[in-house]
């Protein structure tokens, strides 16, 4: 092996070794994702007991409203058509999660608060109809938390500049064309509901 080949072989070997040890790139602080979980121990037996069959019923309608310029939801109802609504029993673990979410959740900072896999397993699900209506039958007395995610689209128009025209007197006219735009949204809709007596029918607005 001549000296040039030897040097090339060494260089390639060093390059391969370096590459194998340089795969991880430290993410920027703004891109790091923080996930928090409640520190309270989850009681699966309590959750299972709360979701056992009873004689109560929860009937609801799920919807959202578009926000106005002041930030208030004052528009017409946007009904939740064919979305999944989940029901979670309000246990001490859930209450700890809900409070932690109030304290820590921040999407801009990529801070998220999750239920454990075991806790999320103890839930019921319903699907809304085209009018946003849903039902949870055979419920026991107790306090529950409802949640859904409603996707909807807002539309509007804006004037797009297309050019300028000039006349023989030196005047000018700007021309615009009306263009339509669409913006996709997803609203997290949530509500607490309580069945106080066995056989009670509770109505709720999930928004």
Q: What structural class do the secondary elements suggest? A: alpha+beta
Biggest pleated-sheet summary? 4 strands, mixed
**Top-tier CATH class:** Mainly Beta
The number of helices is 4
pLDDT averaged over residues: 89
CATH architecture: Sandwich
End-to-end span in angstroms?
76 Å
* CATH topology name: Immunoglobulin-like
Helix content: 10-25%
Sequence stretches where pLDDT stays below 50 over 5 or more residues: none
What percentage of amino acids are in beta strands? Answer: over 45%
The run of helices and strands is HEHEEEHEHEEEEE
Shape: flat
Radius of gyration: 28 Å
How many domains would you count in the coordinates? 1
CATH homologous superfamily name? Immunoglobulins
What is the number of beta strands? 10
Structure characteristics:
207 residues, 21% helix, Immunoglobulin-like, four-stranded mixed β-sheet
Give a verbal description of the structure.
This protein has helices at residues 3-20, 44-50, 92-104, 117-121; strands at residues 34-36, 56-67, 73-79, 84-89, 111-113, 124-127, 133-139, 142-166, 172-195, 201-206. By secondary structure, the chain is α+β, with helices and mostly antiparallel strands. It has a single domain (27-152, 187-206), classed as Immunoglobulin-like (Sandwich), CATH 2.60.40. The strands form three sheets. Strands 2, 3, 7 and 10 form a four-stranded mixed sheet that branches. Strand 8 and strand 9 form a beta hairpin. The longest helix is centred in the first third of the chain and has 18 residues, at 3-20.
């Amino acid at each position: 092996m001549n000296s040039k080949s030897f040097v090339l072989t060494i260089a390639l070997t060093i390059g391969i070794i370096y590459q194998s040890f340089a795969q991880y790139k430290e993410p920027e602080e703004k891109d790091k994702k923080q996930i928090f979980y409640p520190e309270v121990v989850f009681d699966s037996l309590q959750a299972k007991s709360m979701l056992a069959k009873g004689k109560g019923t929860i009937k609801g309608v799920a919807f959202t409203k578009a926000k106005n310029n002041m930030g208030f939801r004052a528009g017409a109802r946007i009904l939740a058509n064919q979305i999944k609504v989940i029901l979670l029993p309000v246990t001490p673990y859930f209450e700890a999660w809900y409070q932690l979410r109030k304290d820590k959740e921040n999407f801009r900072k990529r801070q998220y608060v999750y239920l454990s896999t075991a806790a999320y397993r103890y839930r019921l699900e319903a699907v809304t109809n085209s009018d946003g209506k849903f039902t949870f039958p055979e419920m026991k007395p107790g306090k529950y938390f409802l949640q859904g995610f409603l996707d909807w689209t807002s539309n509007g128009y804006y004037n797009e500049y297309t050019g300028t025209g000039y006349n023989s007197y030196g005047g000018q006219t700007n021309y615009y064309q009306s263009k339509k735009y669409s913006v996709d949204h997803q609203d997290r809709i949530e509500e607490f509901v309580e069945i106080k007596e066995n056989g009670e029918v509770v109505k709720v607005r999930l928004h």
